[in-house]
Amino acid sequence: MMENYENLQKKANLIRKWCLKSTTAAGSGHPTSCLSAADMMAVLFDRYFRYDLNNPLNLYNDRLVFSKGHAAPLLYTLFGMAGAYPLEELLTLRKFNSRFEGHPTPKFVYAEAATGSLGQGLSVAAGLALLAKRESLPCKNYVLLGDGELAEGQVWEAANFAAYHQLDNLVAIADINRLAQSGETMFGWDTDKYEQRFRAFGFETMVINGHDLKEVQIAFEQAFYHQGGKPLAIVAHTIKGKGVSFLEDKEGWHGKALTEEELQSALKELGEPDDQLKLDLRHPDSISLPKQEVVAPKHGLSFEKGNEYATREVFGEAITESGHQNKDIYVLDADVKNSTFSEDFLRAFPERFVECFIAEQNMVSVAAGLSRLGKIPVVATFGAFLTRAADQIRMARVSEANIKFVGSHVGVSIGADGPSQMALEDIALFGALPDTVIFQPADAVSTVKLTVQMTGHTGFFYMRTLRSKTPVLYDNAETFKIGGSKLLRHSEDDQLTIAATGITVFEALKAADQLKEEGILVRVLDCYCINPIDQDTLIKCVRETKNAILITVEDHFVHGGMGDFATAALAMTGKPIQVKKLAVNEISASGKMEELLELAGINAAAIVNQVHTLISTTVLH
Amino acid sequence: MMENYENLQKKANLIRKWCLKSTTAAGSGHPTSCLSAADMMAVLFDRYFRYDLNNPLNLYNDRLVFSKGHAAPLLYTLFGMAGAYPLEELLTLRKFNSRFEGHPTPKFVYAEAATGSLGQGLSVAAGLALLAKRESLPCKNYVLLGDGELAEGQVWEAANFAAYHQLDNLVAIADINRLAQSGETMFGWDTDKYEQRFRAFGFETMVINGHDLKEVQIAFEQAFYHQGGKPLAIVAHTIKGKGVSFLEDKEGWHGKALTEEELQSALKELGEPDDQLKLDLRHPDSISLPKQEVVAPKHGLSFEKGNEYATREVFGEAITESGHQNKDIYVLDADVKNSTFSEDFLRAFPERFVECFIAEQNMVSVAAGLSRLGKIPVVATFGAFLTRAADQIRMARVSEANIKFVGSHVGVSIGADGPSQMALEDIALFGALPDTVIFQPADAVSTVKLTVQMTGHTGFFYMRTLRSKTPVLYDNAETFKIGGSKLLRHSEDDQLTIAATGITVFEALKAADQLKEEGILVRVLDCYCINPIDQDTLIKCVRETKNAILITVEDHFVHGGMGDFATAALAMTGKPIQVKKLAVNEISASGKMEELLELAGINAAAIVNQVHTLISTTVLH
């Protein structure tokens, strides 16, 4: 057995060697953060980890999420020593076009998620573990956590979630190396404090010396056979920079590579480990990710003109219909399922509904985990509360996750609940993220059609739904597409164009009707797709109207909304086009919808006024 | 003593009456969430709370943060029964122009912060408590928490923070009424689970029956005299809808007002409480908020042209200089003080530096607490990690907090660390929030001047700082202002204008120099103020150049950035102006700064290409 650990120690030191070598070659990185976890990862990979290198998406693979993403060189070295690629390739670390980026990204196919914004990995692993639990996949879901990141609240959201959902296939490995980036962590080496926290949050816990291979092995052996309903936390006392005397437990070494000279001295201390040593992964049974089903483009839902529906309510019906057609759809909600109407889906498919309680950050990262294994997670909450998870949304986008976000109660139109509940910056948030499709259906028919579009395409989608009821605008046979819009009023004598979206479509229509009575004809466009905006139609409208004027009107703050998408689309043309953005310019209030639309200057009267002003001051072309 | 509690119970029932009456008058609201906490709040207000109604900012006031903001009618009733206004005014609840909004906002002067996005109040209270601790103010800081919101990770960030900073003047009151919006909470009435969590996070704890007035009084008595270093949590078993039989512990009553008929029946059950009853606040000593000092507009810092500095590093020096001149400035950082260079301030003013560890959400809400009492909090971390606190930033803006945010390491220019560390959506995030000034200094001189501007003005500010060094552009005597820009290259023969900001200013200058060699003159504008953008200068530039073309170039995602501010400013004019936005269009990578600027198409070569394309295809005017 001693012999056994001696060889394992050599492997651990070879891991160390390549963490140091690769970061020195890169000239940057976090080698000391790798060294504290090297022994534990050696044991895990050499003795317990079941993984098919040829198929990272094999459903029977164990999973390892590197929540402490700055220890990426360690992750890269592990898979290299397991045989995924020659170790020499690690010398491309952090270089342009290398798969080994500074923090793990999808370029590294073995990364379960992009990490590097701290405190998100436990949630991703919980998503993976939840799926394994629900689909009876015999795998373990490990996550390596740094100690500094345990201050992030999301970790405790995830801990609650894991315990609540009885994820005993989840193993949190907390690398307590005492030192964070700028000094000692909150609790230093007081591993009890961490253990108490995990235990209070419903985990079984172990405290170990993360450098005693025997202790580590015993812990992972227990983890391997662990069940009984509780998730498991291994709290490991470790030393940052372990294995190299001049790095061990020293401040000033976070995020710093060794010089070539320091490297040589370190490698000597490590006993010049043999590059031929391998980490022996176990081989899992093989079960491939099933081919994703395609949502049939038909829905049985139909709506009569003259009736009114809240788009959030219709979304609930639509996503449930989609759920019948596509068994990969999962719906997640944060205790507002009776407001977002995701409860319809829960009733039909409890096995594919995930109650995340009031913890939006965890919800989004759990969704990223579900997406990793081919599910189509639909994340629903108030649009305002999606901002709570802005960083998780950002990281899910870096992860190339296929998530559909649905934000309800958008804009000042929600009324009496007041500004804290109004989503007014959500288009800016999602619009900034590359290739994110943004829908805002104004009526029931478009809601159904756009829900089908959303779940049928791979990629990042965001859909805004309304609190209040709106009348049916469209025939049930109408079609809707990514990048589309609908012309609702037009004639050959139109003076200008009004582009609206969501609730303001109805204000624009009212304004158009009033103006018509005065003899002023205007064009009204429903920009149900905010990104990509329908540039061709916008240009066409402006070209065909008497004045090259576009008024955009939306229930969103003025910067970063639909108006900016439309303005940018037109400004590229270089034509003499005037754009006036009507949008929310100040913090709103409580009141009736009508009062708040008026306060914001985005109601029919404001549109009419704006048309009067613009037409009277503009030279015809 | 019995007599005593009888009267108190009547007062509690009068509180209930007005929570019910006001929500029924409003036709919406969360009466049952008020009723569960009514008894506790009656005891607190009637027997312990020290508050000067004439001066909400009296520094010796006790503080009460309503983290469960949906219980706003309870908060409003408390202050009404304490004599702040006639109870009848509560019937304006949720109405337009009422100070009693659906959730507390600054319109209600007794609200310590806007709440309603859950899980933020403990942090705000911790900010208030920290200040009281550091400035030896003899007050208690209470926070009323719902049980549903205890799932929010931020609560546990705040708990860690409060215990770490030994805030024994902080009292968390957890109202465990079992029912959340859409069903039972994670732990129902298992108060032990909550107690364990608070205790593990370093609180002293008590579990009480929140409707037994004697138990409640004993708890608040202990809280009143509590000290010893640990914050205190009172975990109260309560009943949602308590006091009205048909509401008690019933599902389906969250966020629902009683009908007039139901109200009458409820009031009967409550014993038709006497409207003349008052809550007897204690009177604290009076010490007013000191008049805010003005930052002297002079800094001793000067920089020589030819030298290079990272703007983040200069920010560290500048904020420290400002700290000498203005004792109200506090600096908060989330374990990256050696990267943001806020550590300079820590060295000079440890008593006004707040280490928040890796918990950005709590950091921002703590800052909102500091701002409430007249401090000028400067919140520093990587720009990318400010997105972690997007919802807290949003709510701090609703709170009208005077916070200065400084985000370092913006854009792809950070290089090898990769996309997780790059702030590329931060301008969209801050730009959406009304009246938020956004600065991005490109060099050392402008960094100092803009830091002075930032700390000298009241309001929301965001400043972007760069990881890498940039050469000094400006004379030390140069002046900078909100809404300003600097013309760096211009002639009478300019073909078009390039507006740049931050790192891209140098790319624009390089491009201008290369183009000049080809005989093409272009104008280069440093948009150091992104919001409000310098509209006048932009219009002037476009008017004065041969082609009415603006190229914007920035190290930010293409939507929601400086380009959209500039485009919107020009599109309003209706002139034939072409705008081409050069910005980041896809998720970036690891690599050298130069490689990543090239990949994003925002380097000098890309600008030169764009100029060639635009000039060759544009008709002169």
UniProtKB/TrEMBL annotation, chains A, B:
Sorted keywords for this record are: Calcium, Magnesium, Metal-binding, Thiamine pyrophosphate, Transferase
Calcium as UniProt keyword: yes
Q: Which SUPFAM superfamilies match?
A: Thiamin diphosphate-binding fold (THDP-binding), TK C-terminal domain-like
Domain Transketolase-like pyrimidine-binding: from-to ranges: 309-472
What are the boundaries of the signal sequence? none
Q: Name one GO cellular component term.
A: cytoplasm
Alphabetical list of SMART domains matching this protein: Transket_pyr (SM00861)
Gene Ontology molecular function, alphabetical:
metal ion binding; thiamine pyrophosphate binding; transketolase activity
Cofactor needs = Ca(2+); thiamine diphosphate; Mg(2+); Mn(2+)
A Gene Ontology biological process in which this protein takes part is: glyceraldehyde-3-phosphate metabolic process
Q: Which Pfam families match?
A: Transket_pyr, Transketolase_C, Transketolase_N
Keyword Transferase tagged: yes
Outline the subunit composition.
Homodimer.
The UniProt entry, under PANTHER family, shows: FI06132P-RELATED, TRANSKETOLASE
- Family membership noted in the UniProt record: Belongs to the transketolase family.
Q: What is this protein called?
A: Transketolase
Instruction: Give the organism the record lists.
Output: Pedobacter heparinus (strain ATCC 13125 / DSM 2366 / CIP 104194 / JCM 7457 / NBRC 12017 / NCIMB 9290 / NRRL B-14731 / HIM 762-3)
What taxonomic classification does the UniProt entry list for its organism? Bacteria, Pseudomonadati, Bacteroidota, Sphingobacteriia, Sphingobacteriales
